[in-house]
Write a structure and sequence with these properties.
With 508 residues, the protein is α/β, with parallel strands linked by helices. It folds into two domains: 16-205, Rossmann fold (3-Layer(aba) Sandwich), CATH 3.40.50; 275-492, 3-Layer(aba) Sandwich (Rossmann fold). The chain has 18 helices and 16 strands. It starts with 15 loop residues before the first helix and ends with a helix.
Length: 508
């Protein structure tokens, strides 16, 4: 497996891809297969005490020969081989996985990094550092460029190739020629295949499209998402993001498969904590965050103020604890920011005002500055919103296990892991019925869902459905407890996903 992230390594996680790279390989080794994982060094992993230089390779890039070091790391998970490829370009600055370029040159820095990574990884394959390789599994646009260096036909010794799409909205497009971050600048002696040219911007290279067209098998991370991407984007619907024709061709050829990601179910789970104990954990986390900064930000100030008020409350009837954990980006929280038709007030502010005495919302996460500012502003005005700008694994586990209702209103969701983690803790979820959310949450069975053909419709349905769920929680303990039990009993095992990988992607 070749990827940009690896949650099995400290600091190797940004999003859900890292969870897949950490958790699927052990599921495959548990079924008798040998798995190795390769990511860039990011200027840090090659310095680990357990890093061993296995060889140096030379790859042509930018018109010059570049030397890269291939390191193995001590395996920490069920015998999975952990590898990193090092070049000085991969550590600017050290430890940073993705870079945020100006809007005039999106993906420029990352595209340079991953184009060289793919060129170097291809030489490692040629020099047989992984002898007897059967399958080369590439993840998202970052690694699709490896397919440029492989024979197109099934020649002897060529591994079968699988390309997983984790999020079709990010495709890594760069110009075919011109700036330093362009296809011809990287590989002046190569022509970009027609199958790698963006169908909307004919002067751009699109590695996501290249992966979809050249891999032997294409994998989407849930069956629902695999169906949705066959349709073009609509005003509200996110479909194929301009690549739906290529995806339909792959589907018609039998190359495209939707397989749901999994979730780990350890023997010992986080216990469900009482509300005072949840607030104690929040207090401990906030205290650490504040102590790490000389100045207290407005986000921390409002959080401390709200926390103190919540801890001092003396209510006979406990409010519903609504939790939300994840990246605060338009995809994930855009519907909460959307104004309700005819109201001019966002969905979340409306819910906060309507439930000032009956629900407390706790939101944990960071993301786009505009989304963060939305939550900070609301937290300053609404005493029942506790916004925690940051992330902490221990606190996240407490919220997954101890909330009454988990809110996940993603506009689109290829798979999602947060809803699985909340369900694992016995917390029902209210989700938008899309992609992997629709594949995991059954309305009125193990959770709740809303929908809508437009953003206005979805916003209205979200607000209405939330009130219905709140009423059920307040008045009908028996059906609520049944839904809670169903959520806790739901299983999305990696072993099940691994069997589907073997049948549909690897052995097909």
């Amino acid at each position: 497996m070749v990827a940009a992230e690896n949650g099995a390594l400290p600091g190797g996680k940004v999003g859900g891809m890292a969870d897949v790279i950490a958790q699927m390989p052990p599921a495959l080794t548990g079924q008798g297969h040998t798995v190795d994982v390769l990511i860039p060094s990011y200027g840090s992993y090659q310095h680990r005490a357990d890093a061993t230089l296995q060889g140096t390779v030379c790859a042509m890039f930018g018109g010059f020969e570049q030397r890269l070091g291939l390191y193995s790391l001590a395996s920490t998970r069920s015998g999975v081989g952990q590898w990193v490829l090092h070049h000085p370009l991969f550590g600017q600055p050290a430890g940073q996985i993705y870079h945020h370029d100006d809007a005039s040159a999106p993906f420029a820095t990352d595209a340079n990094l991953y184009a060289l990574f793919c060129a170097g990884a291809a030489v490692c394959l040629e020099q047989d550092f992984w002898p007897g390789l059967d399958v080369l599994h590439l993840h998202d646009w970052h690694t699709a460029g490896l397919l440029l260096f492989l024979p197109l036909d099934q020649s002897p010794g060529r591994p079968r190739t699988v390309f997983t799409v984790h999020n079709l909205a990010l495709q890594g497009q760069r110009p075919l020629s011109g700036p330093p971050s362009s296809f011809q600048s990287w590989f002046p002696d190569r022509c970009c295949p027609a199958t790698g040219i963006d169908p909307r911007f004919l002067d751009c290279y699109n590695p996501m499209r290249l992966g979809i067209n050249l891999a032997d098998r294409v994998h989407l991370v849930s069956p629902g998402y695999a169906r949705e991407v066959l349709l073009p984007n609509g005003e509200f619907h996110h479909g194929g993001e301009g690549l739906e024709a290529d995806l339909r061709s792959a589907e018609e050829a039998g190359r495209l498969h939707g397989i749901l990601n999994g979730c780990e179910y350890p023997d010992t789970l986080q216990e469900r904590l009482s509300r005072p104990r949840v607030l104690d954990v929040v207090n401990q986390t906030l205290t650490r965050w504040v102590a790490a900064n000389e100045l207290v930000s407005s986000a921390y100030y409002f959080a401390l103020r709200t926390l103190a008020a919540l801890q001092a409350e003396k209510r006979k009837k406990r409010p519903m604890l609504v939790t939300c954990v994840g990246r605060l980006v338009e995809q994930k929280v855009g519907l909460l920011r959307h104004p309700l038709p005819g109201e001019g007030v966002s969905v979340l502010e409306t819910l906060l005002m309507e439930t000032s005495k009956t629900a407390t919302f706790v939101v944990l996460g960071t993301g786009d500055p505009a989304c963060e500012r939305f939550f900070i502003d609301l937290a300053g005005r609404c005493p029942n919103l506790l916004y925690l700008r940051g992330f902490d694994d221990e606190l996240a586990e407490v919220l997954y296990a101890s909330g009454d209702l988990f809110l996940m209103p993603s506009v689109f969701e290829p798979c999602g892991i947060s809803q699985m983690l909340a369900m694992r803790g016995g917390q029902p979820c209210l989700v938008h019925a899309t992609g992997g959310l629709a594949d995991t949450v059954e309305d009125d069975v193990n959770g709740f869902s809303f929908s809508g053909s437009t953003a206005d419709d979805a916003a209205l349905d979200l607000a209405e459905r939330f009130q219905q769920v709140l009423t059920l929680w307040q008045n009908d303990a028996e059906p609520w407890n049944c839904i809670r039990a169903n959520a806790a009993a739901a299983r999305f095992e990696w072993q099940t996903s691994a069997r589907s990988y073997l049948e549909l992607l690897y052995h097909a």
